Amino acid sequence: MDSGLPARPVPCGASLHTGAVHAVRFNSSGKYCVSGGADRQVLLLNPSKGLILKSYVGHGYPVLDVTISHDDRHIVSSGMDKLVFYWDVMSGVLVRRFGGTRDGGHTQRVNAVAAGSASMNPSDLMCQVIASASYDKSVRLWDPRSNNVDPIQVLEDARDSVTSVSFRGTDILTTSVDERLRIYDIRMARIFEDWLGIPLGFGAVSGDGNCILTTCLDSQMRMVERSSGDILSTYSGHVNESFLVRCAFTFDDAFVVCGSEDGKVYCWDLENATETPTKTLSTVKDEGSVACGAIDTHPSLPQILSGSHSGHIMLWT
User: Fold this and answer.
1) What are residue 227's phi and psi, to 5 degrees?
2) Does the residue 1 lie in any domain?
3) Is 3 a member of any domain?
4) CATH code for position 308
5) What letter does residue 138 receive in the DSSP assignment?
6) What are the tens digits of pLDDT across the range 139-156?
7) Is residue 4 part of a domain?
8) Which of 19, 62, 136, 275 fits a disulfide with 108 by CB distance 3.0 to 4.6 angstroms?
């Protein structure tokens, strides 16, 4: 049943971050990844070799999220300093910094960032847009090509902290502690809202775009049908009661994966959905109590990237 899941851990060196790893993301090819942590660093890594290729330093407080632009030329990061940073990958130069209350920025920590989807037309403005989600209950959209420092749009429908944000075409998906999953159709200026009845952590969209997976603060994941808002499946076995843990679909949508506050990575078979995990991966040897909140899956291979609060990053192959 689990033949399509990785089993062998490849530690990416010693503790790469001196503190919790809050986010890990593969680039579009899966050859490289970026990470962000409590030590205020953003790192570019070769995960298969465990090499740090470059460090991006500029945040004054812990980094809470990182992502890579669809063309792999820029890194976007955000954190407790209420700012969004836009880095040039090759040079390590900070190209733009978005935020600050005088520039229409967030007034609280920035929990999550997203870059425009690669599925968009490269000439489309939305392909270049950056989205940021904050504890201040808002989502802000930024244009890194413009000299204007103000956001190009502010979405203020959430009633509590917005915990994740992502693009799917011209749609924007958000999750919030207010127990609601929202999809913004930016082109048509419409919003679709589903109430799940429990504070939401992280949201991920399936490869075919039909399903949304979200972690919830009752130690369950829920898979929601995008078109109807119906809950299709629930997954349990992991621990998620206190803070954000991330989740993902594998590249072929065959499995769903999430981190856990008990220091493990949990995997479930999507086709034979049950609440019992198909496989459990221990992220750090002899440190099972160290939470693992950062998760990403390879874009084309059965590999999982995990980051724990111990500072370790592991590639599962």
Assistant:
1) -75, -35
2) no
3) no
4) 2.130.10.10
5) -
6) 999 999 888 889 999 999
7) no
8) 136
